[in-house]
């Protein structure tokens, strides 16, 4: 069972995503700010990180840079989750160290496909 770290500060989003991911068979670990997300990633060694970019304490861009700088976390795929869907925001997330980008509102079937790709699996449909 793949382990996903969901770093998200909005309760309705983490509640919705964690329930749906668990139903799909994923183990879900939650963190509600960027600093806690970095700690959870180092402690839990998830298979994929879903990272909101607009977080309290430590923003997603800084968290992604910290994770990619750490020898123990640099190989973990990060999918940026963000309401920042302006031109250039995808590039900004990728430059910070994210491996993929998913604009909000979340399209769950597309996100499942991105998670499968990050895990090196054949894409699943939602």
TrEMBL record:
Keyword Phosphoprotein applies: yes
Domain of life: Bacteria
InterPro entries (UniProt xref): CheY-like_superfamily (IPR011006), Sig_transdc_resp-reg_receiver (IPR001789)
Residues annotated as domain Response regulatory: 3-119
Keyword terms of this UniProt record: Phosphoprotein, Two-component regulatory system
Gene3D superfamilies per record: 3.40.50.2300
Residues bearing PTM 4-aspartylphosphate: 52
Identification of the protein by name: Response regulator
Species whose genome carries this gene: Methylobacterium komagatae
